[in-house]
Each structure stands twice: as C-alpha cells, then as structure tokens.
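User: quick one - fold this with zinc ion bound?
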Amino acid sequence: MLTHSTILGYPRIGPRRELKRALEAYWDGRLSRDDFDRVGADLRADTWRRLAALRLGELPANTFSEYDHVLDTAVLLDAVPDRYRAAADPYVAMARGADGLPPLRMTKWFDTNYHYLVPEIGVDTPLRLAGDKPIREVREAQALGFDTRPVVVGPVTFLLLSEPAPGSPAGFSPLDRLDDALDAYADLLAALRAEGVEWVQLDEPALVTGEGVAEARRAYDRLGALTDRPKLLVASYYGELGDALPALAATGIEAIGLDLVRGGPVDPAALGGKTLVAGVVSGRDVWRTDLDAALHELSRYPDVVVSTSCSLLHVPYDLDAETDLDPALRERLAFADQKVAEVVALADRLARGERGVAPTARTAASDARSTLDSRAPYPERAASQAVHLGLPELPVTTIGSFPQTGELRAARAALAAGTLDVPGYERLIEAEIERVIRLQERLGIDVLVHGEPERNDMVQYFAEHLDGFATTRFGWVQSYGSRCTRPPIIHGDVRRTAPITVRWTRYAQSLTERPVKGMLTGPVTIVAWSFVRRDIPLRDVVGQVAEAVREEVRDLAVAGTSIIQVDEPALRELLPLRRERQDEYLQWAVAAYRHATSSAGDHTQIHTHLCYSNASEVVEAIDGLDADVTTIESARSGGRILGQLDGFGRGLGPGVYDIHSPRVPGAEEVGDLLDAVLKVVPAERVWVNPDCGLKTRTYPQVEAALTNLVTAARERRAD
Ligand code: MET
Ligand SMILES: [Zn+2]
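Assistant: Sure. Structure tokens for the protein plus zinc ion:
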C-alpha cells in the first residue's frame, strides 16, 4: 500500500532560483558541467529532506529537470530528431537552439503558464528506452536514505503533446506509435523494478481534455498486465477524467490520481477498487485548503491517499519567505511547503477517523454582463477617427515597450531600496520617455508610444496600482527553462482608486504632434497571469478588473488620448480544456473586453494586441473584441495566421518583425512580409508593426529594424 500522504510533484527552480542562475551560467560557459550537476544534486537532496522533514509519507522523484520534463521524456525514449544528434549538447540544442539550428517548438502546458517543448514524432522516430534519468534520481534518493516514487509523463499524454515530425505522411499522428512507446515504457518499468522501486507515477493530464480515452485503455491494459513492474499510479490533473475514468478503472493498474479540486467528486464505485490518490489540496493556487471540507470529501472513499490536485510546480516554495505581506492576507495563503503540511495534516486527521464537515455552498456564478457593450458601427467610428488622426496609409507603429535598459532596472532597484526618491525616479522615467519619443520621430514612425519604461511587467505594474492585489518578493514560478514569473495575488475585490497611466501618456503626448497611444493590459491577461481568489467565479474577477480598466480607458480618453491600446495576449490562456466549455468562456471574456474599452467613445481608436497564443483557435473571439485595430504575432510563425484573417473587417497589423530573435530583418524581407499581408487585407486597413513589444531587444537592433519597417512601408505607399 502507498503510505497515506503524497504530492504529485514539487517546484524545481530552487527557493532562490538557484537552478535559474546555474543554468544560465552553464549555458554561458561560466559554470562547468560538474559544478552545474552539483547544483542540481543539492536541489534534489534539499527537496527530499524538506519533504521528509514536513513528514510527507511518500516522496516523488524525477520531478527535477534541466529544462523541461516533456523534453526529458523525449530524451528518455530516444525520440530526438536527427538534426540535433550531432550538436555538442543535443538536449540544450533542442531546448534553446544551436548554431543555425532553431530549438523545438515551445507551447503552453495545458491551461497553465508553464511551457514545454513539443517533441517531434515521425513514422520511424526511435521510441526505446535510451536514458536513465528516473533511475539515477531514484538511486540518488536511495543513497540519501529515501525510497521514492519516480514520476514520468505517461505514454498517451506524451504522444498527444507531440507533433508529427516534418515530412510525416498525411494523416499520421504520433499516437499511431503507441505500441512502440509502450514497449519502451515496459522496459522502463522493468528497469525501475530492478532498482527496488515499489510505485511509479505515470502522469496523464491529457486525459482531462477528453482525448485519448481508447488509447489510455489500450496502454494501461498492456502495462497493467506486465508482471515485471512496480505498482502503477496513473495521475490525471487539471480537470475531471470523464470517460477516461471507467477506462482506467477497467485496467490492471493499482491507483488512480484525481484532481478533486477542479474535477469535483466522483462515485467511489467508479474507481473499480483502485486506490484513490485524492487531489484535495490545490496545486494551482496559493490559498489555504478548507481542511474540514477536504476531510469530508476524503472520507467518502474506502482506499485513499491524500495528495495535491497536481504537481506543486505552479506555486512558489514557501510563504515564510514573504515577511512583507499583510498578516491578514498571510493567514489565508499557502505556498508549496504549506500545502505539503496540509496534505500531511489531512492524512493524520483521516487516520484518526475524523470525517470533517460538508463545505458551505459557494457563491453562485453571477449572470452579470452577458450582453455586449458596443460603440457606433465600425464604418461610422472609423470615419470620425480618421478625420482627427490624419494618418498616412500603412501607418507604422510599435506594440508598446521599448528596450528596458540596465539604467532603468537599476533605477527601479534604487527606488525600492530607498536610495532614489520618487521625484528623482519620475524624472528618470520622463527623460526616458522623451528619448523614446524623439527616437520614434526621427525614425519616421506614425503612431508613437511612450515606451513603458515605468513598467517592470505588463501585469505586475497594474497589480501594484490596483486594490485587491498583493505582490510577493520571492514568489517565483517556472514559466519555461530558466524563466520565472512572479504572479501577483488577487485576494479581494479589485478596484482602481486613482488613474494609473494617464500622467505618463499625457507627458509623452505633450512632447509631440504625432499621436501617442495610451497603453493598457486587458482584463483577461491581468487575471490569467495572476493567482486568482476562488471564493467568487473567475468571470466575476475578470469583470471587476474590466471595470478598473474601463475607468482608466475613460480617463485616458478624457485627457485627449486619441488612440488607446488594450493588450490581450493571454486571451486564449484561460480557455477551458474541454471543448464543450470553451464557447461560454469566450463569450464572457469578449464581453469583459468590450466593457473595458467601450468607455473610450467613438472617436478614440481602440487597438488590441495578441501574441504567442495559438491565435488561430480563437480568431472569431478576437474579431468579437471589436477593436478598431488588431496587431497580432505573425512574423515568428511564418505568416500562418494570415490565411484566417480575411474575414476581419477592421484595421489589422500582422507583425512583420520577429522581435523574439536578435536578428534584424532587412527592408526587403519586411517588404515581402508586408506584401503577403496586402494580398489578404485591403491596403486601407493594414498597419505596419512588429510582432510584440521591444522590451527584450537592444537599441541598436530596434533602431535598425524599425528603420527597415519605415522604409518598406514608404515603398509600398509609393506603389
Ligand atoms: C506580451 S504582449 C506585450 C505588449 C506590451 N504592450 C509590450 O509592448 O510590451
Ligand atoms: Zn505581445
């Protein structure tokens, strides 16, 4: 039997981002392979010791990664595309690219803000046990005196997350290779058994999307029937299993992991006598668990292990590090270590025969705002906007941010440390705005931006200025590889108490005759990149943020701002995993955006911006935002979005400069991309702009690239 408490996974970046620093030093050649390995080994040892000290019953292993656990699985199975095999370090080449070799495609891991590398599987990609990472970690733990349960991405999820290798025959799907993958997993299980491993956890979160049910049945019938293997826990998370639950229950596996937070309770009889690894402590938020309610739920099942709803990868390490937080708020919070303690406390109480109490009913979903706010019909408002904007055809603009220089970061740090006072800081920001305005005038940009120098981050900045948000000092969460974010925490009703951006926009506009765009982050994106309260429905939280953005839009318009951009790059990120729930979400998300922007009036031009978000899946919703101008990532993905934009009846700026790369495109290359846009969109509605903000680029790159954008636009205008 499993001991009575466990977790599905734990953060791996290090409490002070030790792994981030070590990785970046190793990549730059500042840290030797041996020293880098030592950092990893220390982090793993600290994790096991920490979990044991918290009295967790069963410890996971193989939750560490040098970049991404999906990539680790591909390497374990030898599913490495040939083009990377000759690289000095194929793992790093797949993750980050190498000379002339772009990295694997990266995309979002389910509906989280973690990103994984997409394996490429073709008809003859090797699928065989080639690596030993889980085995090494198990041994490493044994040497420290810990028996562990290795965690590996399961075969169905691995193949569902893969894409067909380039050149695969039409109709081929990586899932067609399931039997080959199962051979490799069978070998892995036998190898782990030989190490004395008692349990293995195979993660199958993809099953909550409703896909892969028949394949899961086939896979676990086969793996379950093996005799030379450890016991199998198949873990699902991020939602309910639906039809996949009876499929798994009918196989020979020993335990099923369910996300009871997001998935809701199941009929105990539906488990087919398997042990339930009951995810009652949420791994997706930072709130304390209602222990009585969780206990009540746990006591419904005969054979149960208390667990987290998913890996704790998505939450920060330890609340104790946050000494600055309001004590009343701290009371309500739990980070990874506090959640582990909750799991242990629940297991103790369950063992004592406590049964908890049923939870009190949650606030029902409000039906607020299902109607769409609207402004005058597009042709009418476009006409009035055109009159006072007086823009040339093919207007050139940027997405908002200009390079964040070392001076700016140093000034922000000095302000926080108290060595720079507020007026001094504000003078620096104004000087930066002036520099950026002059630069854009000199380059011949038509619609200017102030450059966002006052913002460390497009969400955190607003969080710091709105009521109902808290920000942390060490609350880092891995986004991908060595990149981490510090999501703000929405803990109460969101309210705007004073204008946030108006003074900077107004200052920028005072410096120039050309229009300067006001620049805001949209309600969905602010919520998607935060930890969200859960006592009221998500759509109500978005509604509150929309109200705050609406007030800011109105104040910008009243201050005479003729163009306001409200970015929604995360529009797709809150999309429910199950298709049948997606429409409802998109409806209220679009309604929130329109509510936020309709306070602008008809003669203010509204822009929106989207990027890295598989926009093709939500094109209709983007159209529904009803923005006068939509700028959207296109250069990076080779113009793939263009095929879907012909239905757009308003202004459109598909990116013609990929800002994700240090490369500067020539004027001719930009011109070619622009011509491709002009084939699908009538010239009078086309805008010329980069794919995204310029924040991560350097000034020399930006100046050269923007010069080429202006040149290309002018040539096409002359034509
Ligand atoms: C991730 S979208 C970024 C938009 C923002 N206005 C910027 O330019 O940085
Ligand atoms: Zn962007």
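One thing worth noting: Residues 399-401, 452, 458, 519, 567, 569, 609, 611, 692-693, 695 surround methionine (ligand 1) (CB under 6 Å).
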